[in-house]
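Progress note, sequence design subtask.
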């Protein structure tokens, strides 16, 4: 049986980070502070939070793992099928590369050829659950590569996903966290052309050892206006926040949201990694309880985690959601997103 605490914590941690960061998405750190205030509670709708594609992809990966029986080809087919129907439900804020890949899947192109050349953070945002579930490094890398290439073919996107998956694996181990051990495993798992990312990750580890804040590290990389959707920006910042507060979910998520930019994705990634270590019990109860979601409710996501921990690596039936309910939910979600967009047209400005 896989680590139930880590798997549930990863899924719920991803959801909480995603929901907290979502209202801040696309804002610079300075304007986010003026417009919304500190990310200490949910600010999406009536002091409640909702999830975005980061959590939805994590859930779809978990469902596909349950049905795969440990077979990566089955996993690819099941995940591809879910992506097709997920796109048909018209989710808000889909990444360009993911959208193009879903269209290719609908035209009958196989999962092995559906990816497009992009170094976006889509593969990284759904990688933590793989690391929390699969302890064997070689098996883990096989699943991460398959998940990544289904939508993104730029090797940089894959390298970023590998780093995040191995971070979640390291976080889920029951012994003491060792950043240098994690970095060594990452180095051994990367091909020779991943030198740039490895240098960025080493810089993140050194920065944490020197006591620098995550926002300071982001500025040192030239990201004063916020973290972009480029995986070589997203991954080092997420790693820095994780290593700064590996056992403190609240501080780690706040630290990465305060960097600005693609806040829902960075917070979802950090939430998934730290959640894999602290479990559901380590996630602030108020943040978890104030998520307003349906049909992928908190209880549904917890049931998904339990089923995955009991099934992997064997095959089982995954929990499902009603597609009509998903479309209804997405229409409500889009209306709230648009209201945030109109609000941003007014002051205060940074």
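Output:
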């Amino acid at each position: 049986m896989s680590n139930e605490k880590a798997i549930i914590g990863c899924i719920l941690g991803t959801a909480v980070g995603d929901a907290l960061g979502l209202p801040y998405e696309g804002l610079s750190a300075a304007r986010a502070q003026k417009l919304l205030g500190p990310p200490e509670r949910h600010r999406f709708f009536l002091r409640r939070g909702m999830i975005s594609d980061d959590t939805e992809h994590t859930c779809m990966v978990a469902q596909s793992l349950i049905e795969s029986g440990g077979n990566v080809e089955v996993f690819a087919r099941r995940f591809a099928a879910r992506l097709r129907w997920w796109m048909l439900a018209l989710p808000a804020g889909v990444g360009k590369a993911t959208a193009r890949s879903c269209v290719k899947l609908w035209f009958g192109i196989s999962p092995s050829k559906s990816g497009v050349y992009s170094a976006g953070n889509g593969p990284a945002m759904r990688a933590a659950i793989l690391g929390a579930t699969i302890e064997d490094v070689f098996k883990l890398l096989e699943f991460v590569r398959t998940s990544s290439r289904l939508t993104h073919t730029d090797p940089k996107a894959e390298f970023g996903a590998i780093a995040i998956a191995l971070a979640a694996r390291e976080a889920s181990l029951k012994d003491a966290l060792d950043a240098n051990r994690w970095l060594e495993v990452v180095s051994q798992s990367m091909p020779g052309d991943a030198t740039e990312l490895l240098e960025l990750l080493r810089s993140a580890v050194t920065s944490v050892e020197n006591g620098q804040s995550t926002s300071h590290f982001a500025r040192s990389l030239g990201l004063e206006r916020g973290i972009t959707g480029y995986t070589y920006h997203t991954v080092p910042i997420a790693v820095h926040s994780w290593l700064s507060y590996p056992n403190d979910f609240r501080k780690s998520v706040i630290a990465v949201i305060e960097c600005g930019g693609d806040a829902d994705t960075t917070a979802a990634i950090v939430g998934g990694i730290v959640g894999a270590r602290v479990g559901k019990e380590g996630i602030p109860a108020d943040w978890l309880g104030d998520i307003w979601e349906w049909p992928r409710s908190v209880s549904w996501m917890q049931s998904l985690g339990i089923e995955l921990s009991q099934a992997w690596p064997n095959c089982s039936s995954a929990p499902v959601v009603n597609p009509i309910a998903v479309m209804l939910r997405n229409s409500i979600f889009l209306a709230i997103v648009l209201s945030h967009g109109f609000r941003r047209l007014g002051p205060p400005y940074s």
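The two ends are 50 Å apart (CA to CA). Work on this subtask will continue into the next period as scheduled.
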